From TrEMBL:
GO terms for molecular function: protein-glucosylgalactosylhydroxylysine glucosidase activity. This is Protein-glucosylgalactosylhydroxylysine glucosidase. Pfam families: Glyco_hydro_65C, Glyco_hydro_65m. The gene is Pgghg. Keywords: Glycosidase, Hydrolase. It comes from Struthidea cinerea. Residues 284-490 form the Glycoside hydrolase family 65 central catalytic domain. Catalyzes the hydrolysis of glucose from the disaccharide unit linked to hydroxylysine residues of collagen and collagen-like proteins. Belongs to the glycosyl hydrolase 65 family. Coiled coil: none annotated. InterPro entries: 6-hairpin_glycosidase_sf (IPR008928), 6hp_glycosidase-like_sf (IPR012341), Glyco_hydro_65_C (IPR005194), Glyco_hydro_65_M (IPR005195). It catalyses: (5R)-5-O-[alpha-D-glucosyl-(1->2)-beta-D-galactosyl]-5-hydroxy-L-lysyl-[collagen] + H2O = (5R)-5-O-(beta-D-galactosyl)-5-hydroxy-L-lysyl-[collagen] + D-glucose.
Length: 689
């Protein structure tokens, strides 16, 4: 087991899990691997035609194990330090320690590195040797690799993926330079301590690979390679800090989720390098047959995105730009199915074309286009970033999805409402249903946002958008006062995962507290206990909304059966099946903390709050909440809420803010001044002054 009493952000064990999938992942925005694995992946590098498209395996020189020859039962420890973004393996022998450190450099995103350090503990003078056991072979089943000339002491290979995603489409190229790895390293008789550094640079061009490798060598020469990574990573963690006073297991889970999710996003100072989206198991997974082959689903937009947006809107923008770059593929998907506008694929890789191996999901699980639009709407309300929508393609995407929804609806003369027929809702136990409550509600929200945005941009609003938003059917049972999942749903029918409960959050579909409660009561007992990990977090958010704190706690507790020891790697299903390092589940868990405990809700008029947390939590502190160009530090206890503007953007200038309580008190929020008020419902909005 991991340490329960120590630092909640450091996970240490004396043995590794038996299942190698549960080893910690080391990723940045462009590269990802798992500790001791002999392959890595590069963002956006897929091989295989649609249906077989998967992350291309790049051979990894980093997947080695260190051993101490001749040492009898040395003491070993394995540590993931989420504060430094570093994994280490330490062997302690009589007279010396050997430490292997491994990391994906956070700011030099084309660089991964490891070091071996041997340090004497006594006055002996005999040489000390450690072995490096490597499985590395510079070959790949997915890349046509060719050796090139050595560069600054590094070996070099390069090659293209074997099969393009779409016929005639591009085949990405990979260039890799790496420090040659000897079979053993020795500390000389006169040496007390020595460190050896090893680099691997991977990029889409020879020039970028060489530039990154040279930058790494220069930092090695200055003795600051690891320090430069830690500094960049620590700056990100400081700006996205979430701390709570509560049970150790909850605090550890929180730090694990923040580590794995923030590892996947671009660094703060990254130039405009394209971002390639986040798959359910992240960049370290996604080889053929694993983690849905590294495809991007609604998991990114619905489950991971809101957390990133609240803490780090620049990275949220990069996630949206992935959808913007794949808009043409989405247009083709709609066209091929006989509809207008753009239909985002259920499973997306590099082009936006549908790459799901099973046709039923791509054809029926169409809510994903609405999920993408909800992310764009949340971003717009939080940042008021006009440039994304006016100049960078945001409006074209919103308009295309609105047109898709209009063409996908049919008018029912009998009900005098619009229907969407033949879909699969988020609950994948039911296909080919009519009027999925979630699908239709997200279509309605898409059309309302498109109309509101058009008005803000001083564009004409097509009449049919507002007409269809008003008249689309969202199934509702007047007698039982709840939302049936789809036309013909019978109470008690098993459900795979969170579906109707998503109407309350994140969709904020209008309903009374009674209906919200009835939806939770109806679906909680029939949702498959073996279903995917993000489900219970949404029930927890619902119960927090209704101030049913114990019921919320018991739902949150269910998440822990998906968190594995000792490195807090999540599995999709509690039996260990499905995607591993399941960022989707972590995203749901973080939303309980960031949106459930705080009551934060992103709306057009303000950032609502209504805090509530279970009895075993006494304080929550979030530094780096981003809203309209301001960075806020928010501290909440049961009695008091404290808010301070810690930073304001200058270009474009941040909007001045105020906090308003439902009872009417107003509190101007000024940079550098802490404001306290009783913990109660209210909102943060633009100051009218």
């Amino acid at each position: 087991m991991a340490d329960g009493d120590g630092d909640p952000g450091v996970f240490t064990a004396t043995a590794l899990p038996g299942d190698p999938r549960l080893l910690p992942t080391l990723t940045n925005a462009f590269l990802g691997t798992r500790a001791f694995r002999d392959i890595l992946h590069a963002a956006g590098v897929y091989s295989g035609a649609a249906g077989d498209t998967h992350r291309a395996d790049v051979p990894s020189p980093l997947g080695l194990r260190m051993a101490a020859p001749g040492a009898r039962s040395p003491a070993e420890s394995f540590t993931l330090d989420t504060w430094t973004g570093t994994f280490s393996h330490t062997i302690q022998c009589p007279g010396y320690t050997a430490t292997h450190q491994l990391y994906a450099h956070h700011s030099l995103v084309h660089l991964m590195a490891f070091s071996i350090t041997i340090r004497r503990l006594d006055g002996s003078t005999h040489p000390v040797t450690v072995q490096l056991q490597s499985l590395f072979v510079p070959q790949s089943q997915d890349l046509d690799l060719t050796p090139g000339p050595d560069f600054q002491g590094a070996h070099y290979i390069y090659g293209q993926t074997l099969v393009p995603e779409v016929e005639g489409g591009p085949r990405p190229t990979v260039h890799m330079l790496w420090t040659p790895i000897p079979q053993s390293l020795a500390l000389g008789g006169e040496e007390r301590e020595r460190r050896w550094e090893f680099l691997a640079a991977v990029a889409g061009s020879e020039e970028e690979a060489k530039r990154s490798y040279s930058a790494g060598l220069a930092l090695v020469a200055a003795g600051s390679l690891h320090r430069s990574h830690v500094r960049a990573w620590a700056a990100l963690r400081r700006g996205c800090s979430v701390e709570l006073d509560g049970p150790p297991a909850l605090r550890q889970a929180l730090h694990g989720c923040l580590y794995y999710l923030l590892s996947a996003v671009p660094p703060r100072d990254s130039p405009g390098a394209p971002f390639h989206g986040i798959s359910p198991g992240g960049l370290s997974n996604g080889t053929r047959g694993e983690d849905y082959w590294g495809h991007v689903f609604w998991d990114q937009d619905t489950w991971m995105f809101p957390n990133i947006l609240l803490l780090y809107p620049e990275a949220a923008r990069a996630m949206l730009q992935y959808r913007l770059r794949t808009l043409e593929g989405a247009r083709r998907n709609a066209q091929e199915q006989g509809y207008e506008g753009a239909k985002f694929p259920w499973e997306s890789a590099a082009t936006g074309r549908e790459v799901c191996p099973e046709e039923i999901y791509g054809a029926q699980e169409i809510h994903v286009s609405g999920d993408v639009l909800v992310a764009f709407e949340q971003y717009y309300c939080t940042t008021q970033d006009q440039k994304l929508f006016r100049e960078d393609g945001g409006w074209e995407l919103v308009e295309a999805v609105a047109r898709y929804w209009c063409s996908r609806m049919e008018w029912s003369e009998e009900e005098q409402l619009y229907h969407i027929r033949g879909v699969m809702p988020p609950d994948e136990y039911h296909g080919q249903v009519d009027n999925s409550a979630f699908t239709n509600a997200v279509a309605r929200r898409s059309l309302n946002f498109a109309a509101d945005l058009a008005r803000d941009l001083l564009l004409s609003v097509p009449e049919e958008w507002e007409d269809r938003a008003r008249k689309i059917k969202v199934p509702f049972d007047e007698e039982r006062k709840y939302h049936p999942e789809y036309d013909g749903y019978s109470p008690g029918e098993p459900v795979k995962q969170a579906d109707v409960v998503l109407l309350g959050f994140p969709l904020m579909h209008p309903m009374s507290a009674e209906v919200r409660r009835n939806d939770l009561e109806m679906y909680e007992p029939v949702t498959d206990p073996a279903g995917p990990a993000m489900t219970w977090s949404m029930f927890a958010v619902g119960w927090l909304e209704l101030k049913e704190l114990q019921r919320a706690r018991s739902q949150l507790q269910k998440c822990f059966s998906n968190i594995t020891e000792p490195f807090k790697v999540w599995v999709e299903n509690s039996d260990g099946s499905g995607a591993v390092n399941f960022l989707t589940g972590m995203g749901g868990f973080l939303q309980v903390v960031l949106f459930g405990f705080t009551g934060f809700r992103i709306t057009r008029s303000g950032l609502l709050f209504d805090p509530a947390f279970p009895d075993d939590i006494t304080e929550l502190n979030i530094s780096g909440v981003s809203y309209l160009g301001n960075k806020l530090e928010v501290t909440i206890t049961r009695e008091e809420t404290r808010v301070e503007v810690t930073e304001t953007s200058r270009d474009p200038p941040a909007s001045p803010l105020e906090a308003v309580l439902e009872l009417g008190q107003r509190f101007p929020l000024r940079e550098g001044q802490s404001v306290s008020f009783p913990t109660a419902p209210g909102w943060i909005q633009r100051s009218p002054s």
